[in-house]
Amino acid sequence: MRTGVTIVGAGLGGLTLARVLHVHGIPATVYEAEASPTARSQGGMLDIHDYNGQLAVEAAGLMAEFRSLILEGRQAMRVLDRDGTVLFDKADDGTGGRPEVQRAELRQILLDSLPAGTVRWGHKLSSVRALGEGRYELGFADGSIVTTSVLVGADGAWSRVRPLLTAATPEYTGTSFVETYLFDADTRRPASAKAVGDGSMFAPAPGKGIFAHRERGDTLHTYVELTEPLDWFAAIDFTDAAAATVRIAQEFDGWAPELTALITDGDTAPVWRPHYALPIEHRWDRMPGATLVGDAAHLSAPNGEGANLAMLDGAELGKALAAHPDDVEAALTEYEQAMFTRSSEAATDTTVLVESLFGGNAPHSLVDMFTGGDRAH
């Protein structure tokens, strides 16, 4: 390619794209609103799948670094009912294709693999407009302006690049997470630590659930899921951590104490994370010189695939641009057609997963999914 690639967003998708481009000798610049790599928490654990996320890691030439991040034993999985009874328990025998890593550590190996100055921190995109003939002008909050002829929006759920390509906007799915952490759980809350086990724990019921991951050390990361409208959550004052915790815990009155303790005894203030999604068949007409990756392209409710798909998007787009060095449009067309198909398939699978988790037959429907060998898990 005779020109560099401009990427908006330094998440996993944008960084994977920048790294694969670098591997192929194509310059890229990533503009990120956050002031630094440590400006905010990068979230919890990710299981990186052998059929998508790991393919991206391989394309980036970072498999050795990736393997050094794997938390052994964390592919263990169990399903409990509201009384704490174990309905399904699968140990991590080391053969699974979904090793767990910490998101922040995965992001860091991508950052470390890029030439100095590739990521421009503190560049919040405030405007983007088409100049014609496949060229774009980006305006940033600090007053700086950049023009480019290859623009990739990797800027997440509320992408500012997306409106160039499509009028679609994310809509609330009807469910939300409330997140909290429990530190030193093995010694301070042994009953809860035992309930979670060595990896991930699911305790679903119709319309709600308590889920938890064992992260590095004996930290438990809890995700309380509730099927409630936005107004229901808006009525809770999450700036009052104690009151918010009590209100969320009320929804699990009568559940096993080792499960409710994951909420009531959390060491961090509860954080509300509403789930939004784009339409399952979201796609757009080819726009010269511009495209999207990750949540900007195909935001879905949490399904275990989001980060994996974002990384695969970045890798596949990078490989397509390298394969068509003199024809950006051919590269973008090839990338988008494959991406549209895989992202709509994943979004369709999400509807099946949600029904298994929160439908009228939960938790038994989730056990049936696991024992049936469904790929979504």
Describe this structure in words.
- The chain has helices spanning 12-23, 53-59, 63-69, 103-112, 185-188, 190-196, 230-234, 241-250, 257-264, 295-298, 306-323, 328-358, 364-371; strands at 5-8, 28-31, 45-47, 77-80, 86-90, 100-102, 119-120, 125-132, 135-140, 145-148, 151-153, 171-182, 200-205, 208-214, 220-227, 271-277, 290-292.
- The protein is of the alpha/beta class and 377 residues long.
- Strands 5-4-13-14-15-12-16 form a seven-stranded mixed beta sheet, with helices on both faces. Strands 7-2-1-11-17 form a five-stranded parallel beta sheet.
- A hairpin with a 5-residue loop joins strand 14 and strand 15 (220-227).
- Helix 1 (12-23) packs parallel to helix 11, helix 11 packs antiparallel against helix 12 (328-358) and helix 12 (328-358) crosses helix 13.
Short description:
The chain is of the alpha/beta class and 377 residues long.
List descriptors.
disordered C terminus; 17 strands; globular; alpha/beta; 377 residues; 7-stranded mixed β-sheet; 13 helices; 5-stranded parallel β-sheet
What's the alpha carbon Rg, rounded to whole Å?
21 Å
Low-pLDDT runs of 5+ residues are: 373-377
Q: Please give the number of β-strands.
A: 17
Strand order of the largest sheet: 5-4-13-14-15-12-16
Given helix and strand content, the structural type is alpha/beta
Instruction: Summarize the main sheet.
Output: 7 strands, mixed
Strand fraction equals 15-25%
* SSE pattern, N- to C-terminal: EHEEHHEEEHEEEEEEHHEEEHHHEEHHHH
| End-to-end CA span | 39 Å
The average pLDDT value, as a whole number, equals: 91
**Helix amount:** 25-40%
Number of helices: 13
Shape: globular
